[in-house]
């Protein structure tokens, strides 16, 4: 049972991260490309039966009849068969290799909107993949930053004790005394508002990562405190091992369980932090997509009321959260209770 | 008494520390409220300099901090640039709304989580336990932002509940009963969002603490004495399990405040949340500091209440400290 859960979790994470890493290939269109004729077009259906009632073995698509107010009618005149691995817009794989192949698309310059379009006529599915890149990367990098600071603070605090310990732990207490989201917003408030998306992304990671160091630091300190009293540590010290050697060889390996469990807890929390800040308009800004600023469109009442496909990033968050929760449970039991 | 005095002193030191930290950050940060005015050609540099000195922004950090502390002592909490009012005047009304929301959500969540957790622990592995575990796992996988948006979509689609704000636009013209109903219906959505976001964690802790308490030898002895199941559950096990739950109550204030911040902004509840966001966007920094300080006061107060409850419920703490 537990094995099956953890396997599902790992599969979900691999699929999600794989999809956003290869966003250029899986996304049919450029995330900022606008189709002015089709704002808020609903998702298109794949058809197997055409207007004359004939069954096709290969799915095809009808495009929307452009209308001024809403898209309710398919243009039944011309079916467009779905094509796999087609040439389309250029993109770069992992920032270096150029390519223009896409997993699927239509011929003749027509667009297939799997998850509809947003208010500017941009393909929501493509933006979901490209935006996931920003949001998921923010979660990973911020966690790396936060755990590095936490590890440094926690290990020095636990290992050296005395005034170092006192100073670090008092500071940690202050960070934990402010409700997390208030702290995040306050630190963001003191930094510049009007910056370009790349700067905003880096700033966001720095803020999220720097703000969350206190809890891991406390936990790591606890592990270090118990680890440094072990007999083999005393023996190593007796043989004249340096502080650095003891920390690297005997203390740090003990903290791995806590660090990994914390990572599985922090990554989803930080993904949500990016999503929340961008949702509120103080994170990564337009036109670069992120799950947060895509959801931000829902703050307008008419979008919330009429265009359900704009909720796609919210739904994408759920499996990711579930997988990380399962992973954290598993790591907690396997690595921390072992001692 | 010594115990409480020490806890209180500690809380006050934490608050002082947080305020010093806020001012340090504020000083390091580039830009301020009046930076935007510099771009406006109609406002002369002299006017800006005058305004800055009027608000004391041209003074060094520690003098500004001193001025702020004095204004806190006077009950003003600094000055808002955007509204030209003492921050306290802006914050108090908003803080009341935030408290109303979080306190009702906390009470409701605990009222559901405690019986559910006790029931699940009593027959663990049973139908109720399995159902509750599945429900809490599902809820944990849904981030609070998604819960909030989902509830909004639900309300908008079904039109059962009003969306946004604390009252309808024409609420002032309503009769007394009607107005009460109006407020109540506006209350439902944000409270439900907060309860759904916090309940899985509460439930899991109650269940874990109760399972542990029910497995203890004292409960076994009580059972051997033939004491009734309900009495064991409520009188023996619940008291043993109370300690971690009371600590969690203190900690849960922090989660609730964070969740509430988001719910308030998304659902347009006129609490601290929307005010904080507006202050951030207009760089009204004393309002930001005021909101952060107030949220910290709530959190610290929650922990103090938890300390008092622990003292009252756990004889070990009482005897160790007196």
Strand order of the largest sheet of chain A: 1-2-3
So what's the CATH class of the domain at 96-285 in chain B?
A: Mainly Alpha
Report the C-alpha radius of gyration of chain B, rounded.
24 Å
CATH topology of the domain at 96-285 in chain B: MetI-like fold
Which strand order does the major sheet of chain B show? 1-2
Specify the structural class of chain B.
mainly alpha
Got a strand count of chain A?
Answer: 5
Helical amount of chain A: 55-70%
Sheet-strand content of chain B, in percent, reads under 5%
Mean of all residue-level pLDDT scores of chain A: 85
How many beta-strand elements of chain B? 2
Order of helices and strands of chain B: HHHHEEHHHHHHHHH
Mean pLDDT reading of chain B: 84
Give unreliable regions of chain B as ranges: none
Percent range for β-strand residues of chain A:
5-15%
- What overall form of chain A do the CA principal axes indicate? elongated
For the sheet with most strands of chain A, the description reads: 3 strands, antiparallel
Brief account:
The complex is a heterodimer of chains A (339) and B (322). Chain A has 339 residues and is mainly alpha-helical. Chain A contains 13 helices and five strands.
Write the layout of secondary structure elements.
The complex is a heterodimer of chains A (339) and B (322).
Chain A: H1 2-21, H2 23-26, E1 46-49, E2 55-61, E3 80-81, E4 83-93, E5 97-105, H3 124-160, H4 162-177, H5 180-189, H6 197-211, H7 214-227, H8 231-238, H9 243-251, H10 256-279, H11 291-296, H12 301-306, H13 312-336
Chain B: H1 2-28, H2 35-38, H3 45-54, H4 61-73, E1 79-80, E2 85-86, H5 87-122, H6 127-140, H7 144-158, H8 176-214, H9 217-224, H10 229-267, H11 272-281, H12 285-313, H13 315-321
Antiparallel strand pairs in B: 1-2
Helix pairs in contact in B: 1-12, 5-6, 5-8, 5-10, 5-12, 6-8, 7-8, 7-10, 8-10, 9-10, 10-11, 10-12, 11-12, 12-13
């Amino acid at each position: 049972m537990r094995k099956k859960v953890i396997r599902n979790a790992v599969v979900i994470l691999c699929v999600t991260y794989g999809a956003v890493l290869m966003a250029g290939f899986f996304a049919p269109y450029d995330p900022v490309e606008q189709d002015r004729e089709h704002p808020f077009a609903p998702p298109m259906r794949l058809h197997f039966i055409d207007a004359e009632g004939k069954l096709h073995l290969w799915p095809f698509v009808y495009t929307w009849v452009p209308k001024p107010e809403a898209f309710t009618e398919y243009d039944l005149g011309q079916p467009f068969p779905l094509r796999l691995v087609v040439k389309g817009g250029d993109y770069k794989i992992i920032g270096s290799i150029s390519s223009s192949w896409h997993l699927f698309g239509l011929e003749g310059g027509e667009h297939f909107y799997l998850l509809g379009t947003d208010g500017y006529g941009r393909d929501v599915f493509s933006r979901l993949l490209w935006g996931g890149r920003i949001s998921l990367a923010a979660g990973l990098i911020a966690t790396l930053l936060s755990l590095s600071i936490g590890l440094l603070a926690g290990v020095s605090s636990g290992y050296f004790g005395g005034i170092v310990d006192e100073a670090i732990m008092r500071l940690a207490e202050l960070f934990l005394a402010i409700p997390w989201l208030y702290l995040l917003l306050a630190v963001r408030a003191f930094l510049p508002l009007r910056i370009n998306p790349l700067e905003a992304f880096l700033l966001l990671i720095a803020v999220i990562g720097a703000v969350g160091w206190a809890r891991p630091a406390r936990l790591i300190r606890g592990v270090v405190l118990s680890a440094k009293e072990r007999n083999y540590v005393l023996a190593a010290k007796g043989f004249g091992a340096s502080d650095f050697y003891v920390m690297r060889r005997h203390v740090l390996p003990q903290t791995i369980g806590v660090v990994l469990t914390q990572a599985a807890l922090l990554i989803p929390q930080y993904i949500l932090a990016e999503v929340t800040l961008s949702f509120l308009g103080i994170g990564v800004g337009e036109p670069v997509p992120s799950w947060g600023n895509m959801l931000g469109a829902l703050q307008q009442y008419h979008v919330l009321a009429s265009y359900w496909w704009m909720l796609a990033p919210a739904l994408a968050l759920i499996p990711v959260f579930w997988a990380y929760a399962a992973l954290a449970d598993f790591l907690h039991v396997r690595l921390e209770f072992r001692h | 008494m010594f115990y409480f005095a020490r806890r209180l002193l500690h809380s006050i030191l934490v608050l002082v520390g947080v305020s010093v930290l806020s001012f340090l950050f504020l000083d390091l940060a580039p830009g301020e409220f009046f930076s935007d005015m510099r771009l406006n050609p109609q406002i002369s540099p002299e006017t800006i300099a005058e305004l800055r000195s009027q608000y004391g922004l041209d003074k060094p950090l520690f003098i500004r901090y001193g001025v702020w502390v004095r204004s806190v002592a006077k009950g003003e909490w600094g000055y808002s640039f955007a509204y030209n009012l003492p921050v306290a005047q802006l914050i108090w009304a908003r803080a009341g709304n935030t408290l109303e929301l979080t306190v009702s959500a906390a009470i409701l969540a605990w009222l559901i989580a405690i019986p559910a957790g006790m029931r699940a622990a009593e027959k663990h592995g049973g139908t109720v336990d399995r159902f509750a575990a599945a429900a809490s796992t599902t809820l944990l996988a849904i981030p609070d932002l998604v819960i909030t948006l989902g509830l909004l979509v639900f309300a908008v689609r079904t039109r059962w509940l009003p969306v946004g704000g604390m009252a309808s636009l024409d609420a002032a013209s309503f009769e007394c009963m009607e107005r009460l109903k109006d407020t109540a219906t506006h209350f439902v959505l944000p409270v439900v969002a907060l309860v759904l976001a916090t309940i899985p964690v509460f439930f899991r802790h109650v269940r874990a603490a109760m399972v542990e308490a029910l497995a203890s030898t004292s409960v076994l002895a009580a059972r051997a004495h033939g004491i009734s199941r309900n009495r064991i559950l409520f009188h023996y096990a619940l008291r043993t399990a109370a300690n971690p739950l009371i600590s969690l109550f203190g900690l849960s204030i922090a989660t609730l405040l964070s969740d509430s911040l988001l719910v308030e902004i998304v659902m347009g509840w006129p609490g601290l949340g929307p005010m904080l966001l507006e202050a951030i966007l207009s760089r009204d920094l004393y309002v930001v500091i005021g909101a952060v300080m107030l949220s910290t006061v709530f959190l610290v107060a929650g922990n103090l209440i938890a300390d008092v409850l622990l003292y009252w419920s756990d004889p070990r703490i009482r005897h160790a400290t007196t």
